[in-house]
Amino acid sequence: MIPRLAQGLLAAIVGVSTSACGTYFPVNRPLEEWDREGGYRATRQASAEDSDELVLMLALSGGGTRAAAFAYGALEELADTTLTFDGAQRSLIDEVDAVSGVSGGSFTAAYLGLHGRGIFKDFEDRMLRREMQGGLLVRLLWPLNWLKLFSPYWARSDLAADYYDEVLFDHATFGDLARSDGPFVSIHATDLVTGSPFAFTQDQFDYLCSDLSDYPISRAVAASAAVPLLLSPITLRNYSDCGFEPPAWVNAQRERRRELDREYVNGRNLLTYADPGRRYVRLVDGGISDNLGVRGPFEAWVQRGQPPASRPADNPMRWFVLVVVNAQTTPDVEWERADVLPSLGFILDAATSAQVNRYNFETIELLRRTFEHWNLTTGSWDPPLRFELIEASFLDVASQSERAYLNRLSTSLQLPDDAIDRLRLAARAALRTSPRFEALLREISGEAP
């Protein structure tokens, strides 16, 4: 006979498992009928006060609280940068049309999308200066959560998502984002099977025949920051029969089979969601596939083709600006001065950082070359349209000692207050003193070079 206490615990575990299956997995709901215009998409209407002459996009990199604080400092600098153009005096923070976020940067991106300028009221206290890592550890050690973790449908990242939901996002969904006055937000994770970026937008959810509107923002952020081994994947259900039709360029890849062709690989990865055997999609940290959060948007831009030879009558845009806020660190050469072997942790961190940094470099170069190519065409428009790429990173910090300090900061979700302050100031200075940023401000405001 099972003791009464054991019976109670068993009943609690079964109850939690059932609840988890019904409440936590799967969370994303099916689309009853596909609507190519419906849902949370980048085509939503911009704010009436936003100038049509300037399209400003931000990409906030991964890197834990280090990245979130560095991104926040860049936002502060944009808020304090005012220009007069298109008939009004404008702050650049109000001109941000879209922001993508990865891992640590996804916290800042999502909060900006939800609250706009309201991010400056309480984001510091609610996220940057909160002991997030300690809070997660307390949740993990709480006995009732042990019972939940017995469930095969609820794991460490679900616990993290619940925590972010409670302390930061107030149970907000992507439907709330669609109704907000903030910029469009694209939170990026990595598809564990294909290794490709996965964006929490309705355009991506269309392939799953799923409705993004009531999906919790906290779970998207938890997926974007789900560091493998430390945290578990976030799982989505893959549905079918909603009438979704992939774009023509995706269908065209079915017969191409050119493994070294970027368009083919991207199309093939998207078509895997149509496989009846892929009932579920597992998502992990977005930094694995793209730690800058720009590869997905870049691929979408390229699929639209080259700019036309002359300015379309309905296009008033004069500047398309992408600001990449990059909190990556540079290699530490201290071990090269010692005759002892580095630790296993250092070796793993160095190997991972080398891959991420190299991929970041290639991504930036690809974007820069593409923008330069497009400018050859749009520079002859009347008036001309200019594509501009601006990067703010630790490398742009003037002080060598301050760069060394920033590079020693970890990617954890908890940093001391002094580190938060120095990260914010470093981001502001890196953006403010960027030659490309300075030249762009002069051009937009009509000043002579």
What is the structure about, briefly put?
Helices cover 45% and strands 14% of the residues. With 449 residues, it is α/β, with parallel strands linked by helices.
Which features does this protein show?
globular, eight-stranded mixed β-sheet, disordered N terminus, alpha/beta, 449 residues, two-stranded antiparallel ribbon
Could you explain how this protein is built, in words?
This protein has 449 residues and is of the alpha/beta class. Helices cover 45% and strands 14% of the residues. The protein has 17 helices and 12 strands. The chain has helices at residues 4-23, 64-79, 104-115, 119-128, 132-141, 143-149, 156-169, 174-179, 202-205, 217-224, 248-251, 262-271, 295-303, 344-378, 400-408, 417-432, 435-444, and strands spanning 29-30, 54-60, 82-85, 88-91, 96-102, 184-191, 197-199, 210-211, 234-237, 280-284, 319-326, 386-393. Strands 2, 5, 6, 7, 9, 10, 11 and 12 form an 8-stranded mixed beta sheet that branches. It has a two-stranded antiparallel sheet with strand order 1-8. α2 (64-79) packs across α16 (417-432), α5 (132-141) packs across α7 and α7 crosses α10. It starts with a helix and ends in a 5-residue tail after the last helix. The relative contact order is 0.15. The model is unreliable at 1-24 (pLDDT under 50).
